[in-house]
Amino acid sequence: MSVAPLTKSRLEAFSDGVIAIIITIMVLELKTPEGFDLAALMSLTHIFLLYVLSFVYVGIYWNNHHHLMHAVGRITGGVLWANLHLLFWLSLVPFTTRWMGESHLATLPVAVYGVSLLMPAIAYYILVRTLIAANGRDSAIAHVIGKDVKGVVSALIYALGIGLTFLSVWAGIACYVIVALVWLVPDRRIEHS
Amino acid sequence: MSVAPLTKSRLEAFSDGVIAIIITIMVLELKTPEGFDLAALMSLTHIFLLYVLSFVYVGIYWNNHHHLMHAVGRITGGVLWANLHLLFWLSLVPFTTRWMGESHLATLPVAVYGVSLLMPAIAYYILVRTLIAANGRDSAIAHVIGKDVKGVVSALIYALGIGLTFLSVWAGIACYVIVALVWLVPDRRIEHS
Amino acid sequence: MSVAPLTKSRLEAFSDGVIAIIITIMVLELKTPEGFDLAALMSLTHIFLLYVLSFVYVGIYWNNHHHLMHAVGRITGGVLWANLHLLFWLSLVPFTTRWMGESHLATLPVAVYGVSLLMPAIAYYILVRTLIAANGRDSAIAHVIGKDVKGVVSALIYALGIGLTFLSVWAGIACYVIVALVWLVPDRRIEHS
Amino acid sequence: MSVAPLTKSRLEAFSDGVIAIIITIMVLELKTPEGFDLAALMSLTHIFLLYVLSFVYVGIYWNNHHHLMHAVGRITGGVLWANLHLLFWLSLVPFTTRWMGESHLATLPVAVYGVSLLMPAIAYYILVRTLIAANGRDSAIAHVIGKDVKGVVSALIYALGIGLTFLSVWAGIACYVIVALVWLVPDRRIEHS
Predict the structure, then answer these.
(1) Pseudo-torsion of CA C62, C67, C70, C72, nearest 10°?
(2) Which SS3 state, helix, strand or coil, does residue C187 take?
(3) B28 in contact with D at a CB cutoff of 8 Å?
C-alpha cells in the first residue's frame, strides 16, 4: 500500500502523455487552406469549430481524469487496463473528427463521431467502477462518486444524439454539444472532498 | 490544501507535455526541399527563420509558465480551464506558422499569425487573473505579478502589429519580433521572489 | 544509492513519453476512407483491428514495464541503454503495422510485423537480465522475475508465428494474438511482491 | 534554494518530453516501401540504418542530459534558455535525417546532417558552462565535468566530418559514427560521483 502513490503517479503521467498527444495531434491535422485570402480562411470555419469541440471534449476528459485520480488510493492491474481502454477510445477522437470534417458533416461520419464520444463515456464509467472495486465500497472514491448519475445521463444523451443524426445531423451535433457543456463544469463531487 | 502540490504537479506535467509536442510538431512540418544542392537549401531560409521565431515564442511561454506556476499555491477547477484555454491557442501556432510560410509572407496569413500570438497573450493574462483570484489578493502570486504591465503592453504591441501588417507585412513582423525579445528576458519579478 | 529513485523516475518518465507517443502515433496513421457511407467505413475494418492489436500490444509493454520498474532498486548506465534498446524496437511497431495494413496482409509484411513483435520481446528479456545484474542475484527483482519462463515462451511463439506466416498468414497472426492474450494478464509475480 | 529540486524536475520533464517526441517522430517519417516483397523491404536498408544512427544519437543526448542534470543543484533562467537551445538543435535531427535519406547520401545533405550533429554538441557545451556558472566553480557539477575534453573533441571530429564530406561522403559519415561510439559509453565522470 505504501508504494501506491508511485504507481498512481506513473498512471497519471502516462495518461497525461497520451491525452496531451491526442489533444495536440488534432491541430496537426488542420490542413492549411488552398489560398491566402479571406475566402480561404473562412473555408476553415467549420473545421475550426469541430477542432474546438474536440479540444474541449478531450480537455474535459483530462480534467475529470485529474479529479478522479485525485480521490483514488489504490491502483490494481485491472485499473491499468481500464485506463488504457479509456485512452484507446479517446485516441480515436482525432480520427473521427477528421473524417467528420472531410465529409462536411455527412450523416454517417457525424454518427461515428458520436460513437467516438459515447465509447470513452462508457470506458470512463468502467474505470470508475474498477477503481471503486479496487478501493472498496467504503473508500473515499466510492463515497464521492456515488451513483455517477452524470456519467450515465451523458452516455444516454450521446446514444440519443447518434440516433437523431439519422434524422438530422444538427440534432445529433446539438446533443454532443449539450453533453460537453454539462461536463465543462468540473465534477464538484470530487473537488469538494 | 495539503494535496495542492500533487494537483499542481499534474497541471505542470500536462502543460509540459502539450507544449513539448507543440514545439516539436513544428519541425515535423518543415518540408524537405525538392533538390539536394545549395539553392534547394537556401530556399528554406525564410521557413527556417519562421520556425526559429515560433520555437522561441513557444519556448517563452514554457519559461513564463514555469516561473508563474513556481509562485502558485492553490489550483482550482477554473485554473485548469484557464490553463487549457492557453494551451488551445498555443496549439494553433504550428498551424499559423505553416500557413504563413506557405504563403511566402502574404498579408492575411501574417496577420493571422499575429492573432495566434495575441490570443495566447490574452489567455496568459486570464490565467494570471484566475490564479490570483484562487490564491487571494494577498498571496505570493498576486504580490510578485502585480499589475502585469509587461503582459498588457505585449498584447497592445501584438494588436498594433496585426493592424500594421495591412500596411506593411514587415512592420507587422517587426512588432512580433519586438515582443519576443521583450519576453526572452525571464520574468524576474517571479524569479527573484 | 539514495539518488536512485530520482534516476528511476526519470527513466520511467522518458519511457512513458516514448510509449505514449508510439501508442498514439498509430491512430495518426489511420487514413480516413475515401467515401462517407457504410461501405467506406467497412473498408477500414481490418485496418482498425490491426490498430487494436498493436494498441493492446504496446499497452502490454507499458503495463509490464510499469510492473518491472516497480520492483527495481538500482539503475545503471547499462540499464538506460537496455531500456532505450527496448524503446527502439517498440518504435518500429507503428511502421510495421502500417505496412502490414497497406499490404492487405501479404506474407512478407505479416512476417516483418512478427519480427517487430519478437525484437521487443528479446529487448525486454535483455532489460530484465541487465536489471538483475545491476541489482544482484539476491535482489527483489531477481527473486520475483525468476527464470522469466513467460518471456522465453513468448519469444518462441513469435518465432514460430514468423515461420508459419510463410505457410499461412492466418497461422502467423494466430500466434501473435495468442502471445498478446498471454501477456494481457499482468505479471502477477511482480504485482504480488 | 529549497525550491530548486522542483524547478529542476520540471526542466527534466520538459526535456524528456521533447526528446521523447524527437526520437519517436523519426519513425513516423519512415515511409513504407512501394511493394510488399523482399526487394521492397531491402530498398529501406539505408534509410533504416540512418534511423538507427539518429535514434542512437538522440538517445546519447538523453543519457548524457540525464547524467548531467543528476549532478546539478541550481537552475537559473539562463539554464532554461541554454536547455531550450539544445532542444532546438536536437529537434532538427529528424529533418536532416529525412533529407539525407531522400538524397540517397548526396554531399550537401550529409554535410548538413553533420551540422545538425555539431550544433547540439556546441549547445550541450554551452549548457554545461551555464550550469557551472550558475552553481559556482567549486560546485559538484564543475568538479565532475572538469574541462569536458570529450565534448570539445567531439565537436572537432564533427567539424572534420563536415569538411571531409565534400571529399568523400563516407569519410564524413565515418566521423559521425566515431563520435556516436565515443558517447555510447555513458559519462563516467558524472556517474561515479
Answers:
(1) -100
(2) coil
(3) yes
Does residue C105 come out as left (phi exceeding 0), alpha (psi in the -120 to 50 range) or beta? left
All cell numbers assigned to C49 = 483491428
Mean pLDDT value of segment D108-127: 94
Binning chain C into helix, strand and coil, the percentages to the nearest 5 are: 80, 0, 20
- Cβ neighbors of A147 (< 8 A, separation 6 or more) are none
In sequence order, which residues have a C-beta less than 8 Å from that of residue C110 and are 6 or more positions away? Answer: C100, C103, C165, C169, C172, C173
Question: For the residues of D102-126, what is the DSSP string, one character each?
Answer: HTTS-HHHHHHHHHHHHHHHHHHHH
With 0.95 as the threshold, say if the pTM is over it.
Answer: no
Rounded Cα gap, residues B91 and B116, in angstroms: 9
> Which residues from chain A sit within 8 angstroms of residue C28, using beta carbons?
25, 28-29, 94
Burial of B100 (0-12, 13-18, 19+ CB in 10 A): buried
Nearest to C180 by CA among C64, C47, C45, C25: C64
Q: What percent of chain B has pLDDT over 70?
A: 90
Closest CA to B190 of B139, B151, B150, B143: B143
Q: Choosing among C11, C12, C16, which should be mutated to test the A contact, i.e. which has the most A CBs within 10 A?
A: C16
Among D7, D12, D58, smallest CA distance to D180 is for: D58
What value does the mean pLDDT take over residues D28-57?
A: 88
Output phi, psi for A42, to 5 deg: -65, -30
Give tens-digit pLDDT for C120-178.
999 998 999 898 888 887 777 777 666 677 788 889 999 999 999 999 999 999 999 99
Q: What CA–CA distances, in Å, run from A36 to A43, B28, B110?
A: 11, 22, 10
Q: Do D17 and B12 touch (CB under 8 A)?
A: no
Most trustworthy range by pLDDT among A164-178, C141-155, D5-19, D25-39 = A164-178
ipTM here: 0.86
Decide if C84 and D62 are in contact by the 8 Å CB cutoff: yes
Q: Compare all CA atoms of chain C with the CA of D26 and give the residue at the minimum distance.
A: C91
Q: Is B103 on the interface with A (CB under 8 A)?
A: yes
Per-residue model confidence as pLDDT tens digits over B124-172: 989 998 988 888 877 777 776 666 777 888 899 999 999 999 999 999 9
Query: Can you tell me the distance from the alpha carbon of C109 to that of C103, in angstroms, rounded to the nearest whole number?
Result: 7
Instruction: Tell me the shortest Cα–Cα distance from A8 to chain B, in angstroms.
Output: 11
pLDDT of D189 strictly over 50: no
Return the sign of the alpha-carbon dihedral for residues D16, D18, D21, D26. negative
Quick one: pLDDT band at residue A115, thresholds 50, 70, 90? very high
Are the Cβ atoms of D38 and C108 closer than 8 angstroms? Answer: yes
Best of D15, D36, D52, D97 to disrupt the C interface by mutation (most C CBs within 10 Å)? Answer: D36
Residue entry with cell 502500417:
C98
